[in-house]
Structures are given as structure tokens and as C-alpha cells.
Amino acid sequence: MAYQVQDVCNRFSDLIIDASCTDSWFSRIDSVEGVQSDSLVFISDADSLVNLDSSPAVIVTSAEIASLIEGDASSVLVVKNVRLAQAFIKQQYADYDTADSHWGVIHPSAVIHPSAKLHEGVRVGPNTVIGPDVEIGTNTHIRSNCVIEHSVIIGQNCVINNLVNIGYLCVLGDRVIVRPGAIIGNEGFGFAQDEQRHYHRTPHTGYVDIGDDVQIGSNCNIDRGTYGATTIARGVKIDALCHIAHNVSIDEDALFVAQSGIAGSCNIGKRVIASGQTGMLDHKTVVDDVILVHRCGVTEDVLEPGLWAGTPPRPFKEYVRNLGLGKKVNKLSRELAELKKRQAN
Amino acid sequence: MAYQVQDVCNRFSDLIIDASCTDSWFSRIDSVEGVQSDSLVFISDADSLVNLDSSPAVIVTSAEIASLIEGDASSVLVVKNVRLAQAFIKQQYADYDTADSHWGVIHPSAVIHPSAKLHEGVRVGPNTVIGPDVEIGTNTHIRSNCVIEHSVIIGQNCVINNLVNIGYLCVLGDRVIVRPGAIIGNEGFGFAQDEQRHYHRTPHTGYVDIGDDVQIGSNCNIDRGTYGATTIARGVKIDALCHIAHNVSIDEDALFVAQSGIAGSCNIGKRVIASGQTGMLDHKTVVDDVILVHRCGVTEDVLEPGLWAGTPPRPFKEYVRNLGLGKKVNKLSRELAELKKRQAN
Amino acid sequence: MAYQVQDVCNRFSDLIIDASCTDSWFSRIDSVEGVQSDSLVFISDADSLVNLDSSPAVIVTSAEIASLIEGDASSVLVVKNVRLAQAFIKQQYADYDTADSHWGVIHPSAVIHPSAKLHEGVRVGPNTVIGPDVEIGTNTHIRSNCVIEHSVIIGQNCVINNLVNIGYLCVLGDRVIVRPGAIIGNEGFGFAQDEQRHYHRTPHTGYVDIGDDVQIGSNCNIDRGTYGATTIARGVKIDALCHIAHNVSIDEDALFVAQSGIAGSCNIGKRVIASGQTGMLDHKTVVDDVILVHRCGVTEDVLEPGLWAGTPPRPFKEYVRNLGLGKKVNKLSRELAELKKRQAN
To answer: Helices marked H in chain A — which ranges?
Structure first.
């Protein structure tokens, strides 16, 4: 399939500052390393421009980089934000197809309860199981070997990838992407101890409430509330192998990188970023715009925005100072020895 | 469905100290925040009592809190242990239904080997695969899209949730709950190096032996023994995304919180608690009643009960002292500078 | 089934230095603890020899240990490398059967696109879904409830265990083992932020390129490249619950122990060993023959081979010195107090 540059300009006029050769065509999107003569390529730094061996059909870049381009072999689209242009343009022209249209609309091997309500354009892959009273919004794709338990509500234009389990009563907004192997609405880890110190399970009968534009990573686990909801607000993105415990609340546009774990009833603010393998004890609060790095261990509330690291969490500068503690102690040790020597003389 | 308070009193007489209005009825169990006039609610602290906006049908609480309740709009059940009462009463009246009775007893899409022996009351969900010589005890539910390999023995009243894999020869006791996506009986990580420094896999041909009342969390991985068993004793509870390597032995009533990992051949005592993201090196021993917190890294044996943290594990008080090391060193540094200055004068 | 010792000698003559009683037979391979009269047993240390209660049919051991064996009840195979002999001999005589031959060659419940090309000896288990244009090499087994997306190429003699998802366009070499629940070829975690600070997904359209003799652990996640490949070279072994992000490159014979996570575009050298719960920030380089222990946090490049630990990574000796910092500071503090006292007098 080939696309004209003019089509990009028409669709994404708000992203584009300037455009040349809009009658050019491209048929693929590539990285600088893999560029071909019919490629569209995104260039966000001068080094990448230097590494461009041949002329692609289209270069999408910033005004600054565009000024360095010599020759006019390529159509050049000047954009405000190259990364954002890449996200939108790649979604439009080179995204992977989640429709699995080779399996038809509803695969005959899918097991769908007659009371489930599938709106127009819903696709269901082979061996997927959909329980009673489920409602699935327009154009949502449920791929292969999934299990959607009873009374789940899923919005429009969602993609539920292979081997996903969504537990009863959970609610997903629109444009939610659930990656393969994720478990949503599992029962949380809550027990009561008897006099013999044996543990007895407390049933968790709440649900998980997932907002629009959320992404849940592959093989994640999101526990339902003990009562009420575990809440993942609009725009939150969760990477692979994360654990979100019961009754956690994550506010809009927060990012959790892979293998992070959040214990029960934590409150996470807007745009919080937790880098890989972050951990949080239960009932902790992390306010808006906090960034947790270096496997931060949130054993205390984090009540100021900014960069934090360490266990317990410390402002990043303080954390870095403490990393050098060994050298500092060695220096003190030498000075003290000298002082003692001098005093002895 | 509505239940009379007297029914609770009859069933759980050993938990209940005192009861009023036992002819009242309730039809739901809620948290304080979600309470309605037909709710039963558990109250374990005075704050929750204050936050109770309207009168529920039944309050289950301690003697101390009960003395603070004004008015007699609600039936009050005074219990010895509110958390334990919550576990038992919620299990009885408001638990979720693992029978998936909408799919019938054995779903026709399940693939069950004729040599498998399913006792009375066993339920098998859609697309579940059960291999030869499997034996499944009375009233156990195997839900959807699971794979139970050959010669597995599962006890009575177990729940094997969706998308679970139980490997050949593994043995599960009674009332075991396996959460979705868990892998039990995977081959462990064991290799031998040749002269070219390439690795060759050592087959692991043991099994996993899981006692009664064990819970295995979602997306966990439990490796089988190299020879013999990886042992998870009665009452052990393992949270989501944990890793238990080959030939580990975990004794009764131990708790492993999410994302903890235990390397091969560790010995874990009774009632050990490992908080989230705990790690243990292979062949380590952790004795009874140890509590590991703050992502403890068990690089050495832990041979005394009590609270431990840090890598290597230290008694919690010592660990906390070391957290303040940065400030202590700064103080020393200032004192030393002053001393030098005075000495110079 | 019984095997003659001579058969072992014939097959593995390059491993064996000396052999007695090669006309003996064995019918099982056991550990020292489980030994029976018809067992073959591997003994790699003198303690194990002492713990041997009865005479097994065959002892495979080193020359040094062999010299300690009294009596001639057992056939003794003297080998150069006991661990390596165990790997090869156990693979030959006591490995588990991945053919699931009770399900036939291609189970009728498998959903296989007519354009998929399955070479001779390929087996496909119940409920597995294989998309269009997939090619599967000779004697490869795809077990139950897997999803192989379109255009995947899998080599010969591979084992794809239950509940695995392999994403479109991924390429696997020969003799690759994918453990249950692993997700290969998931989209990476890459987003662009707009002016409202909302995140927009950048489609990841590369693939995962897995070499010969690789093993991917259960419930792992391996992201595809943004463009181009995430590369796992020949002989790499990855344990359970690991995360490998987009465009990571792992060179030959590297080992990643359970729950390790590697962020995007890292370059990992040959024979690198990462112990359990290791973490790496994106774009880091770790050179050949580095060993990362104690949950090392690779926040900086590691450019010298050897043993490293800590966050940031430090040579192991330096890391260990820093572990004793608390005691060292206490000592300094006491010395300083004494010095001040003396000076005051």
C-alpha cells in the first residue's frame, strides 16, 4: 500500500509546520538504519541525519534538523514534535492489525454466552470464552484464548490481546489495550489469622475500574478491590509484569515501567512515573508529578513532586550523595588517623 | 438472597460473644463507604464507626467498638476477632462463584483424556485440557483455558482459575486455590557448561507437592524439583508474580507477598512472612517466624525469628540505623573539621 | 524401559574416561536420596557418596570420587565433568515427553490457518491457534492453548510449551524451548507526550529474533523491536518472569536468572550472568563475561568483566566493603569522641 504525503498533511495539519514535495508517495515507515527509497523516516537528532545512507521518500523532522538537510531528494515534513508525529503517523500508516481478520468476525471456536452483548464491529478470536451479561463496545477486538468472566463491561475500540483474563464485574473504558497474558480482577491477597496462626482468605468482591486510553502490560496482575474499586484512571500506562494490588488508585497519565509493584490501597497522583522494579508499601501516597527512579522503595509517602530514589525514597540529589558515602567515610578515616598521629606527637 | 442474623450466629457461634436483634435480615456485605440499609458491615476501629453515614442492617464488631454504638437501628454482632469474622462470614454469604454454572458441569469444549478420573461434583470450564491419568477430587473446579498435564493429582474443593498450567506428576491437596495464569511444575533453571562454555539443559524430573489450603497467586511460577519435590506445605499463601525455584521447601502458614523470588533449594520455616519483592539466593535457610521487609535480600541464612531487612539481611533496628548513615557521616565530618581547626590554632 | 551401560558408553564416549561393568542395566535416574537398585545416579562430591544408602545399578562420577568407592556392586562410569554428563545422560534416558502423544499428532481442536506450513513431525496440542503464513520446522512441538500469530517462523526440534503467545513476524531458531505462559513479541513500552501531557502509543513494528538453543522462561515477556529486532543470540537462557524490552541485544550464552528486567536498547555481552531480580536501565552496555549478583542495578555501563554488585554497579569487593560501612562509621565516631575528650583535657 502506498500513501501520498498530502494525506499525512491533511490528517495531521495541527502537527505540521511546513511541508515540501507533498505529491511524493511512501509505502513503509522505517528507522534510519533500515531506510529504503519508499520509506518515511522520523529524524529527531543530527546524528541520525548523518547516518542516513540513502534518500528516503519522506523525512519527518524538526525545523532545526530540517535546516541541515542538503539536496531535495526527499519530501520533508517539518513538525513541532517529532516523537508525537511518529506516534500518530505510525498509528495511521504502519500499525499492526489486531483484527485478525483471517479468523473472521467471531471465530466459531469462541464460547460466548447468549446473554453477552457484542456491539457492532466486535471481533472475537479462536477459543476465547465470554461469560454471561458481558457487554463489549463497538469495534473492540478480543483476540485468542482469552477468558472474559461474567458481567464485564468493555468500551469501544479496545484491544484485548491473547491469553488475557478479565474477572467478573470489571469495567474498561474506551481505547483500552490489554497486552497478552494480563490478569485483571484477580482476588487480592488478604487473610485473617486464627488462634492457631492459620490464615483464612477474605473474599475480595470489588472490581477493577479502568479508564479510557489505559494500557495494561503483558503478564501483569491487577487485583480487584476488597470492596469497591481498584482504579486505573484515564491515560495510565502500565508496562509488563507489574502488580497492582487491591484498592490502589492511580490517577491520570501515570506511567509504571516493567516489574513495578504497588501494595494495597496506595494513592498515586497524576503523571507519576515509576521506573522499572519500583516497589510501594501499602497505603502510601505519591503526589502528582513525582518521578521514582533506580528501583525506588516507597516505604514512606512522597509528598513533593520531583525526582526521588532509594529506600526510603529521598530526593534524587540526596540519594546520589549517599551513593558516595563509602569514599567519604574513607576520607574521614584517613583524616582522623592523621589527627591522632599528630596529637600523639 | 437475604439471610437472617440468627443463621450467622448458628454457623459461627465460636466467633461470636454477643448478638442483638438476631431476627434481622441482611442481603449484602459492604464496606463502611458503601453501606446500605440491608448491608452487613464489619467495623474494626472507631474511625470507621464515625464514618458510617446510615444504619446498616448488621454491624459486626469488637466489644470495645460495640460499646460506642448509639441507638439500636442495627443488629450488632460482637466478635472476638473482626478480621477473622469477616473472612468466615464473607466466605459464607458473599463469596464469588467459581462454579461458572452457566457453562454446565463439564463444558463440551473441554478436552479431557478418557483415563482422567473426575470425582463427584468436579466442574471443568470451556477449552480446558486435562491429560491422561489425572485425578481430580470431589467438588474441585477447573475453570477455563487451563492445561492439566498427565498424572496430576488434585484434591477436593480446589479452585483452579483460568489459564493455569499444572505440570505432569504435580500433587495438590484439598482446598487449594490457584489464581489465573499461574504455572506450576515448570522445569527449573539448571544447566551444565561444556568446554566451549555453552550451556546444556539438565532435565528436571521431580514434581511440586502442594499441601492443603495453599494459595498460589496469579502469574506465579513454581518450578518442579530436579529430582524429588518442590514443597509448599499446608496453609502457605503466595501472592501474584512470585517465583519459587526447584527443590525449595516452604513450611506451613508462610506468606509470600507479590513479586518475591526464591532461588533453588531454599528452606523456609513456618509462618515466615516475605513482603513484596523479597529475594533469596539458593540454598538459604530462613527459620520459623522470620518477617522479611523492605525487599530484603536473603544472601545469608536468617537463623533468628523477628523482623529483618536489607541486603544482606540485618535485624530491622540495625537496618534502620544504617538508613541514617548519611546524616551521621555528615555530622562526623563537621566535627572532624572543627577539631582540625582547633588543633591548628 | 531398561538401558544397558554400554549404550551410555557408546553414545557419550567423549565424556567418559573409564567404565566398569558395562553389561549392567539401569531403568531410572535418581538423586542420591531416592536411589534404588535399578537407578543410575550422579555423584559429584564425597558427601553424596557417604549418603548413598544402597547400591545403585550405575554411579556416574569423577575420577577422584571413583577412587573412594568401595566394593563393586555398582557399575562405575568415570567422567570428566559430572554435571555435563548428568545433562546429556538425563536428556537421553529420563527426559519428560513433550510430544503429548496422547493427543495425537495434530489435535482436532487446534485452529490452524491453511496457509501455515508445518514440516514433518510437527505436533500441535489441543486449542492451540496458529495463524497464517506461519512456518514450523521439523519435529517441533507446539503444546496446548498457545497462540502463534501470523508470519512467525519457528525452527526444528523446538518445544513451545502451554499457554505461550508468539507475536507476528518473530523468528525462532532450532532447539528453542519456550516455557509456559511466556509472551514473545509483545509491543514495547513507548509513548510520546502531547501538550496536555497525555501519552500516545508509538506502534512497535519490529520483531524478536531468537537464536538456536535459546530457552525463554515461564511467564516471561520479550518485547519486539520498535523497528528491527530484539535479539536473543544462540544459547542464551532466560529464567521465569524476566522482562526483556524492545531492541535489547543479548549475545551468546548469557544467563538471566528469574525476575530480571532489562530496559530498552541494552547491549549484553557473551556469557553475561545476571542473578535473580537484576535490573538494567535503558541503553546500557554490559561487556562479555560480566557476572551481576545481589540484585545489581545497572544504572551505568559495566565495561570490565568480573563480578559486580550494587546500584550503581561496583566491583564485588568494593560493594562488600560498603556493606560494612555502618560498623566503620560507628568506629570512627567512637575514635573522634575520644580524641575530642583528650583534646579537652
So the answer is: 5-11, 46-50, 63-66, 82-93, 316-323, 325-344
Residue C343 has pLDDT above 80, yes or no: no
SS3 at position B285 = strand
Residues on chain B touching C144 (C-beta within 8 angstroms): 111, 129, 147
> How many CB pairs lie under 8 A apart between chains B and C?
183
Rounded to whole angstroms, how far apart are CA atoms C69 and B245?
A: 32
How is domain B3-93 classified at the CATH fold level? Answer: 3.40.1390
If phi over 0 gives left and psi between -120 and 50 gives alpha, with beta otherwise, what is residue A219?
left
Query: For residue B248, what is its C-alpha cell?
Result: 525449595
Contacts of B91 in chain A (CB under 8 A): 200-201, 203
Give kind and range of the element (H or E) at residue A28: strand A28-30
CA distance B69 to chain C (A): 48
Residues of chain B with pLDDT under 70: 345
Please state the length of chain C.
345
Q: What is the average per-residue pLDDT within A168-175?
A: 98
Q: Is C102 a catalytic residue?
A: no
- Alpha-carbon distance B71 to B77, whole Å? 14
CB contact under 8 A, A228 and B181: no
Task: Give the whole-angstrom CA distance, residue C285 versus residue A322.
Answer: 24
Round to the nearest angstrom and report the end-to-end CA distance of chain A: 88
Catalytic hit among A113, A246, A283, A294? A246
Q: Output b/e per residue, A173-191; b: 16+ Cβ within 10 A.
A: bbbbbbbbbbbbbbbbbbb
- Residue B337: predicted pLDDT: 84
- Which of residues C10 and B73 earns the better pLDDT score? C10
> Inter-chain contact A183–B218, Cβ cutoff 8 Å?
yes
Percentages (nearest 5) of helix, strand, coil residues in chain A: 20, 30, 50
Q: Which one-letter DSSP state was computed for residue B32?
A: G
Chain B nearest C-alpha distance from C309 (Å): 11
| Strand partners for C229 | C207
Is residue A72 predicted with pLDDT exceeding 80? no
Q: Please tell me which of the candidates A163, A203, A241 has its beta carbon nearest to residue B91.
A: A203
What phi and psi, each to the nearest 5 degrees, are found at residue C101? -65, -15
Question: What distances in angstroms separate CA C122 from CA A20, A126, C107, C110, C136, one per listed residue?
Answer: 53, 21, 11, 13, 7
B181–A165 C-beta distance less than 8 A: yes
Fold of C102-317: UDP N-Acetylglucosamine Acyltransferase; domain 1 (2.160.10)
Chain region(s) in chain C for CATH 3.40.1390.10: 3-93
ipTM of the complex: 0.95
More reliable by pLDDT, B211 or A51:
B211
Regarding pTM above 0.90, the answer is yes
Instruction: Compute how many other C-beta atoms are within 10 angstroms of the C-beta atom of residue B340.
Output: 15
Q: What is the pLDDT of residue C42?
A: 96
Sheet of C267-268: strand order equals C117-118, C135-136, C153-154, C171-172, C207-210, C229-232, C249-250, C267-268, C285-286
Confidence at A10, pLDDT banded by 50, 70, 90: very high
State the nearest Cα–Cα gap between A109 and chain C, in angstroms.
Answer: 8
B307: which residues sit within 8 A by CB, 6+ positions away? B291, B293, B315, B316
CB contact under 8 A, C163 and A163: yes
How far is the C-alpha of A266 from the C-alpha of A285, rounded, in Å?
6
Q: Does A94 sit within 8 Å of C193, measured CB to CB? A: no
The model's pLDDT over B258-308, given as tens digits with 9 standing for 90+, comes to 999 999 999 999 999 999 999 999 999 999 999 999 999 999 999 999 999
* pLDDT at residue A132 tops 90: yes
Interface probe with A: pick from B144, B214, B271, most Cβ of A within 10 Å:
B144
Q: Render pLDDT for C13-64 as a digit per residue (tens, 0 to 9).
A: 999 999 988 899 999 999 999 999 999 999 999 999 988 888 999 999 999 9
